[in-house]
Write a structure and sequence with these properties.
Layout lengths: L1 H11 L9 E4 L3 E5 L5 E15 L5 E15 L10 E11 L2 E13 L1 E6 L2 E6 L8 E6 L5 E6 L5 E5 L10 E9 L5 H5 L5 E9 L2 E10 L6 H4 L5 E5 L9 E4 L8 E5 L5 E7 L2 E2 L10 E6 L3
Parallel strand pairs: 11-16
Antiparallel strand pairs: 1-3, 2-3, 3-4, 4-5, 5-6, 7-8, 8-9, 9-10, 11-12, 12-13, 13-14, 14-20, 15-17, 17-18, 18-19
């Protein structure tokens, strides 16, 4: 019944193209939580129709259902920003109706949203000096894709194509996360030496993940870096950093990803042929870079 009602709501929107987003906020409920601390258990549900765009210009529409279960404390002094439990369900949708479940993902976070298909962004709020942590998941596979600290820029690159050879332009982006921010245990597990994660994405797919860590084992992070962070592309040995770089066919000078994590520590990784070249990377002696297997 719920699927039939939702199908009518989507049809009633009468949008001119499948690619436009439809959002329907479903029923919500609240109940008094038993035990301590005193609070309310809240359950809400929303539906979104989103389209995945292919390189050939075609669109594939999906229905995304997000069920959120959260507890709101009522007593003074209780933590009011506890992460909620989100169940995200993906279904195919056509003019004929809503299809079966294609995948389901459960994630704990303060907020979730679909910025663009197929990426789900799950944000965990930081405390005090922490930034927020944004974890990205692929709704089609359910796999973790990348992590980013909200105070660090997402930098991008465009590798121009060659029309004569039928090669399209390719878009890249790099997301950077530092372990002083929330969810380090979810991203690295038990890894006290880890300081950060650098994820290279190509057309919304992770192609490389690099772990920044203390060389030789664990250490007090506060003794290793000051976290006065600056990130960007550098086109040559010197010059200002930029958030975007364009790479033309035949360019001989490769740009480099630069992470100046403080006044003393600067990580430089050449970006060559669509990948980070760790063999040519420069990193302070007390830090290390290693490639992390993709999920």
């Amino acid at each position: 019944m719920r699927a039939a009602v939702l199908a009518l709501c989507l049809a009633a929107a009468a949008l001119p193209a499948w690619g436009e987003t439809v959002r329907v906020d479903g029923p919500a409920s609240a109940a008094i939580a038993t035990g301590e601390p005193a609070g309310l258990d809240l359950v809400s549900r929303r539906f979104e129709r989103r389209a995945l765009f292919s390189a050939d210009g075609s669109e594939t529409p999906y229905l995304i259902e997000i069920e959120t279960v959260s507890r709101t404390p009522l007593a003074m002094g209780d933590e009011a920003d506890l992460p909620a439990a989100h169940r995200v369900t993906l279904r195919g949708v056509t003019a004929a109706g809503i299809g079966p479940v294609l995948g389901q993902l459960e994630v704990a976070a303060n907020a979730v949203k679909v910025e663009r298909m197929p990426l789900l962004e799950a944000e965990t709020w930081g405390c005090c000096v922490q930034a927020n942590t944004i974890r990205s998941f692929d709704l089609l596979t359910g796999k973790f894709v990348a992590a980013a600290s909200s105070d660090l820029p997402v930098i991008t690159a465009t590798a121009l194509g060659d029309a004569a050879k039928g090669r399209p332009a390719i878009g890249f982006e790099v997301r950077t996360y530092k372990t002083i921010d929330p969810a380090a245990d979810l991203i690295f597990g038990d890894d006290p030496a880890a300081l950060g994660l650098i994820t290279l994405m190509r057309e919304d797919k992770a192609v490389q993940q690099i772990r920044l860590a203390v060389a030789g084992g664990s250490a007090d992070i506060s003794e290793e870096v000051d976290w006065n962070v600056t990130i960007g592309w550098q086109a040559g040995a010197k010059g200002a950093l930029s958030d975007h770089v364009v790479i033309a066919p035949g360019d001989k000078a490769a740009p480099s990803y630069v992470w100046a994590i403080d006044a003393r520590n600067r990580v430089v990784i050449p970006f060559v042929d669509g990948h980070f070249d760790l063999a040519r990377a420069r990193v302070p002696s007390r830090l290390s870079l290693t490639e992390k297997p993709l999920p």
